[in-house]
């Protein structure tokens, strides 16, 4: 009898910021939870859209020509190739979905290692 | 300045059960919210995993050899080809992700039309 993945329980197992934890797989994508705080880096993913769902807290996704402000239960997809910078106001908990192997900064050299939670 | 998609606000715009509303697109997939109540049909998707995230309420995903019980904040991915039947206990609100054009019953003849919310 498989257990479901409880997102809050997974988030309670770690404290690191901007360090995604893989909680499931879906059609070749990693389904991840991440804790953010403060500014992430400007980046873009040339080959994938970037899925953000805020589970807790408040996140601004800065774009070169504006920004998107998200609170709990808000979802936004940044289209592929669009430069953006996530900025968390206090601690924020996110559900992210990316093709398996996608570097979170858009660049292998600076990407966080994704760990299976 | 794009607005994020608030899932609860989208869910508040309709009452139909098992009638998915598309709220965003992601890498060729439809991102949808749906309200469920009672039993859905047994089905399988031969070519896609089936992503369920419970936003509100309680859902059992019956499998031929067991079941997965989900509450708020619980996520489960049914692998492609695996027969399953979602059963909602009272009203349940879900986030679903499927490749664009996937029939929700696994069968074009019986599938609900997906509407953009």
Give a verbal description of the structure.
The structure is a homodimer of 117-residue chains. With 117 residues, chain A is mainly beta. Helix content of chain A is 4%, strand content 52%. The first copy, chain A, is built from 1 helix and 8 strands. Chain A has one helix spanning 7-11; strands at residues 5-6, 21-26, 29-39, 50-63, 66-70, 74-78, 84-99, 115-116. In chain A, strands 2, 3, 4, 5, 6, 7 and 8 form a 7-stranded mixed beta sheet that branches. In chain A, strand 2 and strand 3 (29-39) form a beta hairpin. The radius of gyration of chain A is 13 Å and the shape is globular. The first copy, chain A, starts with a strand and ends with a strand. The relative contact order of chain A is 0.30. The mean pLDDT of chain A is 93. Chain A binds chain B through residues 1-8, 23-27, 29, 31, 48-49, 51, 53, 55, 66-70, 73-77, 95, 97, 99, and chain B through 1-8, 23-27, 29, 31, 48-49, 51, 53, 55, 66-70, 73-77, 95, 97, 99. Strand 1 of chain A pairs antiparallel with strand 6 (74-78) of chain B.
Please write out the topology.
2 copies of one chain form a homodimer.
Chain A: E1 5-6, H1 7-11, E2 21-26, E3 29-39, E4 50-63, E5 66-70, E6 74-78, E7 84-99, E8 115-116
Parallel strand pairs in A: 2-8
Antiparallel strand pairs in A: 2-3, 3-7, 4-5, 4-6, 4-7
């Amino acid at each position: 009898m498989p257990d479901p993945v409880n997102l809050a329980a997974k988030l309670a197992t770690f404290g690191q910021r901007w360090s995604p934890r893989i909680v499931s797989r879906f059609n070749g994508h990693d389904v991840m939870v991440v804790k953010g705080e403060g500014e992430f880096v400007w980046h873009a993913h040339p080959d994938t859209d970037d899925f953000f769902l805020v589970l807790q807290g408040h996140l601004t996704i800065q774009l070169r020509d504006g920004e998107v402000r998200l609170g709990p239960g808000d979802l936004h997809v940044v289209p592929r190739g669009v430069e953006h910078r996530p900025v968390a106001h206090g601690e924020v908990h996110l559900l992210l979905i990316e093709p398996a192997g996608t570097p979170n900064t858009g660049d292998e050299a600076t990407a966080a290692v994704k760990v299976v939670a």
